[in-house]
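User: These chains co-purify. Model them together.
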Amino acid sequence: MIDFATTPSDYKHWKLEINGPIATLKMDVDEDAGLNPGYTLKLNSYDLGVDIELYDATQRLRFEHPEVRCVVITSDKDKVFCAGANISMLGLSSHAEKVNFCKFTNETRNGIEDATANSKQTYICALNGVAAGGGYELALAAEHITLIDDGSSAVSLPEVPLLAVLPGTGGLTRVVDKRQVRHDRADFFCTLTEGIKGKRAVEWNLIDETVPRSKFKDTIAATATEFADQSDRPDDAKGIALIPLNKVTSGDGIAYDHVTVSIDRTGRLARINVAAPSEAPVQELEDIHAAGVSFWPLALARELDDAILHLRTNEPELGTWVITTTGDADLASAADTALLAHQEDWLVREITLYLKRVFKRLDVSSRSIITVIEPGSCFTGTLMEFVLCADRSYMLDGTFEGDNQPEATLRPTEMNFGPLPMCNGLTRLETRFLNDKDAVGAVRGEIGNDLDAQAADGLGLVTFIPDDIDWEDEVRIAIEERASFSPDALTGMEANLRFAGPETLETKIFARLSAWQNWIFQRPNAVGDDGALKRFGTGVKPDFDNKRV
Amino acid sequence: MIDFATTPSDYKHWKLEINGPIATLKMDVDEDAGLNPGYTLKLNSYDLGVDIELYDATQRLRFEHPEVRCVVITSDKDKVFCAGANISMLGLSSHAEKVNFCKFTNETRNGIEDATANSKQTYICALNGVAAGGGYELALAAEHITLIDDGSSAVSLPEVPLLAVLPGTGGLTRVVDKRQVRHDRADFFCTLTEGIKGKRAVEWNLIDETVPRSKFKDTIAATATEFADQSDRPDDAKGIALIPLNKVTSGDGIAYDHVTVSIDRTGRLARINVAAPSEAPVQELEDIHAAGVSFWPLALARELDDAILHLRTNEPELGTWVITTTGDADLASAADTALLAHQEDWLVREITLYLKRVFKRLDVSSRSIITVIEPGSCFTGTLMEFVLCADRSYMLDGTFEGDNQPEATLRPTEMNFGPLPMCNGLTRLETRFLNDKDAVGAVRGEIGNDLDAQAADGLGLVTFIPDDIDWEDEVRIAIEERASFSPDALTGMEANLRFAGPETLETKIFARLSAWQNWIFQRPNAVGDDGALKRFGTGVKPDFDNKRV
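Assistant: Joint model of the two components:
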């Protein structure tokens, strides 16, 4: 089992140093501390374990260090920044492991860009040595890239010529779309094993500057200060310690404070229940800060994040996630009110951004998501996003016989209209009602109102509203049927249906780039016994089927 | 060898009827006339042969029938419109064949949408029976879909539940992006073997209307007339007969009038040379009409189209296409002038749109494209698009020793600034200089000027400008090296680097959807011995690996 929880004192591969407004995150991978046996993490190459620590560091920098305005990513090893994902590890990994690893890596890098753009915690990259493949891809996520000018250090994406795979964790997309490198230059660069350095690297916009060793440290410090000066993060605020989650794991599931996961292995599904706050959420800013990790929206984000990562990584056979909620709509609504009232506060901003990222993680999860809305549920505001995320939702029309709970309702809040956009830049409602502003407006007109099944159906918010006679069979059959379909076909279908509308850098990375990468990760030319990934390092050249597909 | 040339009198699967402004294209697939042995094309299911005829018909309708303003696609079989791509054919096809077949199908459907949007020849679809899978996907390319209301006929995308593959020729994308069907409804629809008919199909916007048998014919006629009335196509113009190309094929290549293809099997490359007009192109509209298929721009589009389709389908091992040109820049420029002067004419509009589609076909071809620019070449205007298409271009700086030809030049014309957009909606120059209007403007300032290597390089139009000393080695090594890389990695890399900037319905279909489809076409759950494609029709259920990737 892979556990995503860690803490700086347990880091094996990174060193985090804070110096006032500037943090430095030094990569110093312990060769012998790979997550699995069978490979050595030479030259700051990485595996999922290295990435889990990086993700943890980025989260702590946001929440525990409000004073940090600029983060410098660099290496603590001489002459090498990072050699990218470890090739032997990739060669030993199953297809699913490779794909899942890359998805998580992508999410962390997108999170780094989100910190820069929205948390005003700007990441810059100090390449003190060679940055190859995934190493350069990590740099591409930074706002500014400085390369040491030492006559040998270069940036490179050698995946195509060396390994017959793609620079598939954002590299190809960020080169042409983010850094706007001309596509013919990008083509040349991506076929060049040794990479590019010096003046040409700057001219082609592969990096922002190259600086001799003698001036490297000072230049980085000056650049970091420059970015730090542009930030609005407070210098006198107290951070929120991300203490370990209260989490009880058993074979059948996980219980956190607000999120529970029950596993049905026969049905190949996980039931995820999310509870609304059990008491009135604090509304004053100082009380929110005092509550910290126990403030319900932050606790929710952390628990959901951990549950999603756990299920994605450790439970690949659970193909369907059935999402339910419980609790009081007024209390859930009050939590949204607290968030919305203090958007200018750094912590409330962080919590909102974290919720946004967690829902995005749900959107790109290769699992069928079915939301079930029954009496006693609480799909209010932020929690209503589960309904909008879902591939399909079922809402009971009316009540169950012999059950005195009132009818289930949905209640929109302002949280559904902006703060939680999808990767495509639209809200889930805008994506749902693509180009139909009236339909979005009609839902907006219902902010604060409890919508019963008929009303929710009329507004287009739920898929089906069976009554109590049909309910059990209809929901059961939908869930059972889902489990009978090909997992691959479902993954492809969901990845295409969930993201109507515009594409962005992020959706391009998760769709165009990742889909091609997944294809190549399945092709004999890469992963076959005679393929490049298997033969790398053996001295024997790969044997390609030369037919173009 | 697959030949893409055909003519209505040779059609086996379609009947084309012209009735004034309205054409009817009736699908009536000959079960026993599949392109390959081993399968029967039951229920109007199709293979590449059926699609080749459809493509031919769409081209003839544009050029030979200026009077046709609306095209009705329907079936000549009772109770069935089209059952989609033939499953047994897919089961017997290699991975490359499946992928190539789907790409061509997509291009034809995009062409149908292009005819509707830009040629004012609107396609509508009269579903007189069941439209399943690719059958419904064909309908989705039409502007208006009418389904017969006979109690049994439905539209469906049963690929996921029945075959464990995707509705991958546009279906998933067009449902949510073009017809803006809500994603949860789309999810339900795409898992429903029997499909949806009647009121629900209209409500969900899967079709535009459903009409009882008694009123079907009249309704279609009325709808067709309504669309025809909105067209600006002339009713008194004479069409241009698309007579067979003058084409000489040998083992080493193909010679057309203006395009020659030489094949180097050892080097695994095709050299494509395009010749500029050999005499001054006619400029008057009546002369252009009189010239017809021998008007150079139209001849060029037809020859290139055929060459690309031939190489893609029949020469999969030729992984690199080296493109050169020859001829006189003034004559090539004059051809552009003639096109640009008469854009309001239906024929000139068609020729321009055809050129646009051919260059788009080049963009989505899974071959490395290298443009070589030497003395004697003619990369002017339309022909300069080859430089902008290319993954990489080499331009000789200066002349060769002992060669009295003047230096090679590029000459931009207005054709490079609008009439030939890529699938992403931008011109190739806008994509090349993404968000850099100044760089595009600088090239625009050079319209009509001959740019030597230094100037072209300064403007960012070419990748490298070696002098005569380095030329031979540099170009040779680039081409040889290309042939040594994994064909799959190159395909994935090129598909990601060529399309910076916005995504559109078309790029979504070619990238997101096709990439996922290719992945699934490679997965054991679909194509393995126990997979759904192989077991379809045997009565034995597929045996899935249930792990989600």
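DSSP finds 22 helices and 20 strands in chain A.
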